[in-house]
Automatic annotation (TrEMBL):
Gene3D superfamilies attached to this UniProt entry: 3.40.50.2020
Domain Phosphoribosyltransferase, residue spans: 176-225
Descriptive protein name: ComF family protein
Family label: Belongs to the ComF/GntX family.
Phylogenetic lineage: Bacteria, Pseudomonadati, Bacteroidota, Sphingobacteriia, Sphingobacteriales
Organism (species): Mucilaginibacter limnophilus
Domain of life, per lineage: Bacteria
SUPFAM superfamilies documented for this protein: PRTase-like (SSF53271)
Cited InterPro entries: ComF/GntX_DNA_util-trans, PRTase-like, PRTase_dom
């Protein structure tokens, strides 16, 4: 029976080969989601080695954070953009989990990030969540959780307003668009905790800043930020 399952698996792999989420190359035996070449040669930022990296600097003077990090650099038409599209629009949630696991491996020995108590994904509005069926930031958070040994707190930070897309807005317009969009359902649970706020892409940081403003209203909260990628 086991041999039959192996033959069937090989047959379907031949007819419908799995492809790399970053480059569309056919995955070889033992490869999952990413091919070996992409796994090691994607544009990693190594921001975990740079406390004053460009993502952290975006929040200086705006919100008080302990640390900030992005796993990859994001460029239009690049492999990271393809990975994020596979996650968000093709529904391949394993892409988010894998990137979270990779990020968690990098951060697990970092003195700031290894003290995280809860991982909170930037929430989708319930209408968008219903349409998409999942939150891509939660997938990323689930991967991080495995390596950082911190639980994902998915339903405490909520998005109360369905905002317009941020893609073509200026930094000021983005910030205004995100004002009074988020709320915390159970602040008592988060008192005195180190919270890791996570999202897929950081550009101007307006969405993360708006979330951070609400979370930092809770007494004793310490805040750090992690994303899959940083886009200039």
């Amino acid at each position: 029976m086991k041999l039959l399952k192996t033959y069937l698996s090989d047959f379907f792999a031949l007819i419908f080969p799995e492809v790399c989420a970053a480059c569309d190359g056919t995955l070889l035996s033992g490869e999952q989601i990413l091919c070996t070449d992409c796994r090691y040669n994607l544009p990693y930022t190594n921001f975990h080695l740079q406390p004053d990296n460009i993502v952290a600097r975006q929040f200086w003077g705006k919100i008080n954070i302990k640390g900030a990090y992005a796993l990859f650099y994001f460029t239009k038409g690049g492999k990271v953009q393809q990975m994020v599209h596979r996650l968000k629009y093709d529904g391949i949630q394993k892409v988010g989990v894998l990137t979270g696991t990779i990020a968690g491996e990098q951060l697990s020995n970092n003195n700031i990030f290894k003290t995280v108590d809860y991982i909170i994904p930037v929430p989708l509005h319930k209408s968008k969540l219903r349409k998409r069926g999942f939150n891509q930031s939660t997938c990323f958070a689930n991967g991080l959780s495995v390596k950082l040994n911190a639980p994902v707190e998915e339903h405490n930070l909520i998005r109360t307003v369905a905002t317009e897309t941020q893609t073509k807005k200026s930094r000021f317009s983005r910030f205004r668009n995100m004002q009074q969009v988020f709320a915390v359902a159970d602040p008592d649970k988060l008192q005195g905790k180190h919270i890791l706020l996570v999202d897929d892409i950081v550009t101007t940081g307006s969405t993360l800043e708006a979330c951070g403003v609400e979370l930092l209203k809770i007494p004793g909260v310490k805040l750090s930020i992690v994303t899959i990628a940083y886009a200039e």
